[in-house]
């Protein structure tokens, strides 16, 4: 293997082999450990090429030597997709040094970026050109656009702007054979053959390595304002969503659901945050309205929608932010739910999606099943209701140790995922499959679909060197 | 072959073999002739199954007998994708009898349809539920949603709502092996493995047969209003587009470019239509603004944008429709351009797209090249500027017979498509490749991309029975 590493160094390490081809345990450690700290794998080496051409040459070398490749962006994934297994036979190929914003075209409303650019830097480049790059998620200061594409990341802007998939117009990909597919097209319409772009998006690095992308930009809204509504039930949240969509159309840019238990957790662990209501209500919805016209227009739209919701008997109470600053405060409540959960101890997490119209019925169906199987368990249910995406997390009963409760993980998953399947939902809405949910995927996908995926994998990566053991 | 047809009749023709398995020349004729009447193919038979199960059984039979299958929806395609070749060895498999709207979910904002449902019927079903299905194109009274999906149809709503691809959440597909993939999911987020859906969309029936789909619905806007602006140049149209997008965001639902020559053709052949301006200007842009709030809001937004365009020296003149009825009148001008072209005689058509920012430079670059090669030729240039999509058609010089000029088709294509390639554009923006543009595709795509497509085709359709000779 020394010979192999020497050849890697000749390609990527010429300038500085200590920095660009890592093989010491200490230097490799951050690349081998998963974001949530649940797993640490092993690797032959971590390769840090500095150009697309170096990526291609390294892949050709790995193909020749049959060395598996684990592509890695910011390594912030939640499903063990970007870390190697424990065997130590693979290399991690980090895209971190491909971090240039190649170009920005404000009239075409596109930005062309290297895969290793950090999401926040894409957002900042867009803002500097008076545009919006709408992808936004908790890890945006660390995750890379290549990782966002490989996992088809979701986040808080999906209701209006779609997932990462919908934000991408073109890709550059190094194939498992080490060839470069230059598909960096900045076109809104292009019907010239098979949609390779969308095949690589969400493939979690198992079909090739995304090295560059053309992403869509949008006119930056003049203002975004929010309201927090207290509601009797998830069913009422659905009625509020429909009402707000009918009145605001694309101006409704966010619609988040939070249960009373979620806000209680936030109040417990972050007592300095505002408490908008005197007493608790069963559910809360956070609405965001954006306007390309003016802040006054956004506020008027929001007030109109909330007024109509009161008239229709949907909302129990509501706080309408009258400024952008107040709006940020309401978003903080939502954003602190995962932090409050973490402070409270580990729980059993599910990243699920459902037809929006089924969500209230899904919760009503599944919560009693969980209570029956795990009496006293506590549901931390929140998420992007407008996208049908729930973070449906199960915490232990009061007085039970969080770590001890994790022994129920598989049994809890079975209850939740069986219910998801029964309601036509997805067991991974926005995080992907990786190694973590591979067995769950095999359980819930039809043999026809699994065989189609396997046929594509075998056709594009016949040596099975691209991120093996992930997804399939 | 009698035995083969008997077996087809046992599957699809049991109820009425004369209607459902056609093999007489007269009965097959409409299925063998392309929409523009340029080509008529031959077939063993036309199969008209009545259920997804019958489709699957027919495909299994064809696979067994190695009989090529040409899937067909409304047969309104423009690239010879839905008609068989002249050999007479294939069957046409029409989806026309799969014409049920299976269900509509107004809260999830989805409609689940058979592939053979006519586009206009999908629009009508949506409207009956106070929703909008935004796909709209000239053939909507005849084309089917399965054909729209297989060609990833564009049309006039793309600027706001995207192509057919962006409107689809789930598919049901019969594979070339005659298996049924049930991917009819109505989910906004689903990251569970490879994106099979987008692989079938736009594949023109070469990878399988789409039999059903879940399509997105939108809140119906309260009103859509239009303005027609007279402009000095395409460059000014781009400036107007940017200005209107900045001010209106997603409320800008249409932006069409038309040259003076286009409107002159309309005036010549449809003298009864309104002539909004006293004298001619070099270019015109049709803007459409839609509002979920009110007609007054839409009109105010439009008037504001046009006022700003005057202040910025972008527009020479403008007509702002102050009602929905007036707006329809302005759209009629745009919609009559293809009809006026047809009345004027055949021309050499190109369905191209470019980065929006390149369009003015593309026209300035390409028109002189055409004039140099074909002195006096007349450019019929119009299209969906907001999507970067131009219908860039070349008519003969005055006094030259239209049919005679068609001899230059290949040479004209070369000038236009070479220029498209040089500007990073697409030789087929919204019509697809079919048999018509197969050689052009092979010329302009990279070997890497062609090989990736061939690998996918071979993996999913190893017998090459699905619409052979189309795309690849």
Q: What topology does this entry show?
A:
Two copies of one chain form a homodimer.
Chain A: H1 2-12, H2 17-20, E1 21-22, H3 25-32, E2 45-47, H4 52-65, E3 69-72, E4 91-94, E5 101-105, E6 110-114, H5 119-128, E7 131-132, H6 145-151, H7 158-161, E8 168-174, E9 180-183, H8 196-200, E10 209-216, E11 218-219, E12 223-231, H9 234-248, E13 252-259, H10 260-269, E14 283-291, H11 295-311, E15 317-320, H12 324-344, E16 351-353, H13 359-373, E17 378-384, E18 389-395, H14 402-405, H15 409-422, H16 438-444, H17 447-460
Parallel strand pairs in A: 2-4, 3-4
Antiparallel strand pairs in A: 1-2, 5-6, 6-10, 7-11, 8-9, 8-10, 12-14, 12-15, 13-14, 13-17, 16-18, 17-18
Helix pairs in contact in A: 1-4, 9-11, 10-12, 13-15
Task: Please summarize what this structure is.
2 copies of one chain form a homodimer. Chain A has helices at residues 2-12, 17-20, 25-32, 52-65, 119-128, 145-151, 158-161, 196-200, 234-248, 260-269, 295-311, 324-344, 359-373, 402-405, 409-422, 438-444, 447-460; strands spanning 21-22, 45-47, 69-72, 91-94, 101-105, 110-114, 131-132, 168-174, 180-183, 209-216, 218-219, 223-231, 252-259, 283-291, 317-320, 351-353, 378-384, 389-395.
């Amino acid at each position: 293997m020394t010979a192999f590493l020497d050849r890697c160094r000749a390609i990527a390490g010429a300038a500085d082999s200590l920095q660009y081809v890592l093989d010491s345990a200490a230097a490799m450690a951050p690349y081998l450990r998963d974001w949530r700290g649940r797993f640490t794998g092993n690797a032959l080496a971590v390769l840090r090429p500095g150009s697309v051409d170096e990526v291609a040459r390294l892949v050709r070398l790995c193909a020749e030597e049959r060395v598996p490749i684990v592509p890695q962006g910011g390594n912030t994934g939640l499903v063990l997709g970007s870390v190697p297994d424990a065997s130590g036979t693979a290399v991690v190929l980090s895209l971190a040094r491909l971090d240039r914003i190649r170009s920005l075209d404000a009239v075409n409303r596109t930005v062309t970026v290297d895969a290793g650019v950090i999401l926040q830097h894409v957002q900042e480049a867009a803002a500097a050109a008076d545009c919006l790059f709408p992808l936004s998620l908790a890890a945006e200061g660390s995750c890379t656009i290549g990782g966002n594409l490989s996992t088809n990341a979701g986040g808080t802007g999906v209701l209006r702007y779609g997932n990462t998939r919908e934000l991408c117009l073109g890709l550059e990909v190094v194939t498992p054979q080490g060839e470069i597919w230059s598909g960096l097209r900045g076109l809104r319409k292009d019907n010239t053959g098979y949609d390779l772009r969308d095949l690589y998006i969400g493939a979690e690095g198992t079909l090739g390595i995304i090295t560059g992308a053309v992403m869509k930009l949008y006119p930056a809204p003049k203002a975004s304002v929010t309201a927090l509504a207290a509601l009797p039930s998830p069913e009422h949240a659905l009625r509020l969503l429909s009402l707000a969509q009918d009145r605001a159309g694309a101006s409704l840019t966010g619609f988040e659901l939070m249960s009373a238990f979620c806000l209680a957790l936030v109040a417990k662990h972050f007592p300095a945050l505002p408490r908008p209501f005197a007493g608790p209500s069963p559910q809360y919805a956070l609405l965001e309205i954006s306007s390309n016209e003016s802040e006054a227009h956004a506020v008027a739209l929001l007030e109109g929608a909330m007024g109509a919701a009161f008239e229709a008997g949907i909302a129990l109470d509501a706080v309408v932010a009258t400024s952008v600053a107040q709006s940020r405060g309401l978003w903080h409540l939502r954003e602190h739910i995962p932090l409050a959960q973490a402070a409270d101890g580990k729980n059993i997490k599910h990243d699920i999606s459902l037809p929006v119209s089924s969500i209230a019925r899904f919760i009503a169906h599944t919560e009693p099943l969980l209570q029956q199987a795990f009496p006293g368990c506590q549901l931390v249910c929140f998420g992007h209701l407008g996208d049908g995406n729930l973070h449906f997390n199960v915490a232990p009963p009061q007085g039970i140790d969080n770590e001890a409760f994790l022994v129920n993980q598989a049994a809890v998953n079975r209850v939740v995922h069986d219910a998801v399947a029964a309601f036509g939902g997805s067991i991974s809405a926005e995080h992907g499959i990786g190694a973590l949910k591979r067995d769950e995927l095999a359980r819930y996908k039809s043999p026809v679909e699994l065989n189609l995926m396997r046929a594509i994998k075998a056709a594009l990566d016949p040596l099975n060197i691209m991120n093996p053991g992930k997804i399939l």
